[in-house]
Amino acid sequence: MDKILILEEQKEELENLKNLVRMHEFEPITASSGKEGLDQYLVDNNINARMILVPYKLPDMTGAQFAEKIRCYSTNVPIIGVTSQKFAHVTDCISRIELYMGGLQKCINKYIKKS
């Protein structure tokens, strides 16, 4: 089963993301900080993550900083920014640019409308 590395410090949001990943038949590997995520990806590199989901803010670094660190080791793994921000204001646009410059391919909203 392919694995997706999920970085998220909020337990409820982490559970939601894990359920979403499982729903699409991926195995979630989790980390609650940038350092833990780097350890999961680099030290335990046998996880062979197919993708990484990272929030804009982590307890010890930003999502962009995390992506920059991963990009030193891998340019192939897709890194997706998962955020609660709407990116509607100028400061949010700056945040988005920072994420993309760090090596993220896409930003998605972590809140999914229930139908």
Structure commentary:
Strand 4, helix 4 (90-102) and strand 5 (106-109) form a beta-alpha-beta unit. The chain has one domain: Response regulator (Rossmann fold), CATH 3.40.50.2300. The chain has helices at 11-23, 34-43, 63-71, 90-102, and strands spanning 3-7, 27-31, 49-54, 79-83, 106-109. It is α/β, with parallel strands linked by helices and 115 residues long. It is 39% helix and 22% strand. 30% of the residues are buried. It contains four helices and five strands, in the order E-H-E-H-E-H-E-H-E. The model is unreliable at 87-91 (pLDDT under 50). A five-stranded parallel sheet has the order 2-1-3-4-5, sandwiched between helices.
Relevant CATH superfamily: Response regulator
What is the molecular shape?
A: globular
Q: Please, how many domains?
A: 1
Individual helix count = 4
- Give the ordered list of helices and strands: EHEHEHEHE
Short description:
With 115 residues, the chain is of the alpha/beta class. 39% of the residues lie in helices and 22% in strands.
Topology:
Layout: E1 3-7, H1 11-23, E2 27-31, H2 34-43, E3 49-54, H3 63-71, E4 79-83, H4 90-102, E5 106-109
Parallel strand pairs: 1-2, 1-3, 3-4, 4-5
Helix pairs in contact: 2-3, 3-4
Give short descriptive properties of this protein.
115 residues, alpha/beta, Rossmann fold, five-stranded parallel β-sheet
